[in-house]
């Protein structure tokens, strides 16, 4: 399957929030307390999304039929979770895949595509975080070669910090 990334714009905010809500509902069905604030997001989370859209960090992910199958946020730095870093990296946030596309290897394909972008930018790492209350997601990232290198506690939860060396 070929994926394409399409810049998200301010007028796409309702679609972005709907994708977050759908992801939160999917996670809740698995009895995991992760991302549940996206069912009715607080103002600070909506501002966080708007800031990312205004910084051109959010992308819809489309398949070969041009159907939107998910979204992702890609940052060049992530001060909130990682602080200032010396090594160059791309940071992945808000990775969602619509439920009907689960189990098709799309998450891996998305991360592989972003890893290729990082390599083209001569980054040393691809970095992301996962809520420590979601062991299934943490195990998934580890199965893809990400190594846990730290933790970050915020008011909402504690997050495991993962990185993958770009070779």
Automatic annotation (TrEMBL):
Which stretch is the leader sequence?
Answer: none
Q: Which CDD domains match?
A: NAT_SF (cd04301)
Top-rank taxon: Bacteria
Limits of the N-acetyltransferase domain = 3-167
- Gene3D superfamilies for the chain: 3.40.630.30
Query: Which InterPro entries does the protein's record reference?
Result: Acyl_CoA_acyltransferase, GNAT_dom, MshD_Acetyltransferase
One protein family per Pfam = Acetyltransf_1
* Annotated PANTHER family: L-AMINO ACID N-ACETYLTRANSFERASE, PUTATIVE-RELATED
Supply the name of the protein. GNAT family N-acetyltransferase
Species of provenance = Aestuariibaculum lutulentum
């Amino acid at each position: 399957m070929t994926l394409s990334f399409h810049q998200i714009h301010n007028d796409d905010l309702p679609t972005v929030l709907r994708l977050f809500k759908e992801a939160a509902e999917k996670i809740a069905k698995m009895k995991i307390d992760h991302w549940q604030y996206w069912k009715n997001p607080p103002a600070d989370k909506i501002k966080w999304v708007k800031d990312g859209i205004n910084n051109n960090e959010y992308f819809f992910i489309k398949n070969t039929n041009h159907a939107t199958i998910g979204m992702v946020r890609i940052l060049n730095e992530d001060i909130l979770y990682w602080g200032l870093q010396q090594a160059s990296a791309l940071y992945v946030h808000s990775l969602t895949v619509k439920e009907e596309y689960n189990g098709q290897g799309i998450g891996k394909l998305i991360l592989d595509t972003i890893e290729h972008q990082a390599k083209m930018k001569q980054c040393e790492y691809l970095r992301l975080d996962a809520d420590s209350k979601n062991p299934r997601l943490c195990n998934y990232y580890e199965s893809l070669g990400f190594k846990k290198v730290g933790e970050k506690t915020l008011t909402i939860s504690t997050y495991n910090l993962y990185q993958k060396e770009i070779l």
